[in-house]
Design a protein that fits this description.
Elements: E1 10-11, E2 18-19, H1 29-41, E3 56-57, E4 62-63, H2 68-82, H3 89-105, H4 112-132, H5 140-143, H6 148-155, H7 164-174, H8 183-201, H9 223-227
Antiparallel strand pairs: 1-2, 3-4
């Protein structure tokens, strides 16, 4: 049928054997390692995402153990940065447009005109993806992307309807379990005790509570940086805690 002739089996000029050419969206081993190293070295603000570097295995060429919110941020923020220079421009630009669609649709402020533009643009982006990736890539989940802009136009901003706050709160409730034979009772008792302690802590003075605790981004910052507030970032990156300051080496 002469479909994607560049991917048809070809005869090797020296070995005399047939081989399958590499597709434009495939990376070499070196490109995969560079791609994963970028993801492993990414530093995000405190509580912005989990420590993605623990999920990246550079030598094995694997990314395992990502949570749903990590995949969400990987699609929106990190993937366009990591694939830059690792794939051809025609592939990288389409993937970046695909990621940009999710970033725009998950914004805190949405306009009807912008959503209509996104609804038309995502149809073109999916057509471009069909020219690059094989048919097995386009499952029903990929097809549902074309309806997300209309859903946001009807239902409003996405962040009011997604499950991430509920999932985080369910993790808090699970931590209240002490008796596994009576899960509901443990959660109810733990939640009630937690609310009572929060209420009482508002009237305590001279005791560190959740309301007068120092900001987390101030941990380990020198007094020089604390005095110059313009140098204090709004978040502390995840990972090993290192001393912030000037490192002066004596030269012999």
């Amino acid at each position: 049928m002469n479909i994607r002739s560049q991917l048809h089996p070809k005869l090797h000029p020296t070995r005399g054997k047939c081989y399958l050419p590499r597709a434009c969206y495939q990376m070499t081993s070196k490109e995969k390692e560079t791609f994963l190293e970028v993801l492993k070295e990414i530093k995000a603000s405190d509580e912005y995402t989990s420590n993605i570097s623990r999920c990246v295995q550079v030598k094995q060429h694997k990314i395992i153990g990502l949570k749903s919110h990590d995949c969400h941020l990987l699609m929106q923020e990190f993937l366009p940065i990591a694939i830059k220079g690792r794939l051809p421009d025609k592939v990288g630009l389409v993937i970046s447009d695909f990621c940009h669609f999710f970033k725009e649709i998950c914004g805190k402020v949405l306009s009807v005109h912008k959503l209509e533009c996104l609804e038309h643009q995502i149809a073109k982006t999916l057509c471009q993806l069909e020219k690059i990736f094989p048919p097995s890539f386009f499952t029903v989940m990929v097809h549902l992307v074309i309806h997300l802009a209309y859903e946001a136009k009807v239902g409003g901003p996405v962040h009011y309807r997604w499950m991430y706050p509920i999932e985080r709160f369910l993790l808090t409730l699970k931590s209240f379990v002490r008796n596994r034979a009576h899960l509901e009772g443990s959660i109810a008792e733990g939640y009630l005790a937690h609310e009572c302690l929060l209420f009482c802590s508002q009237y305590l003075s001279g005791v560190e509570t959740a309301f007068n605790r120092p900001r987390r981004n101030g941990d380990g910052i020198d007094s020089f940086f604390m005095e110059n507030t313009s140098l204090v970032h709004k978040g502390r990156p995840l990972g090993r805690k290192s001393k912030v300051g000037f490192n002066i080496k004596k030269r012999k």
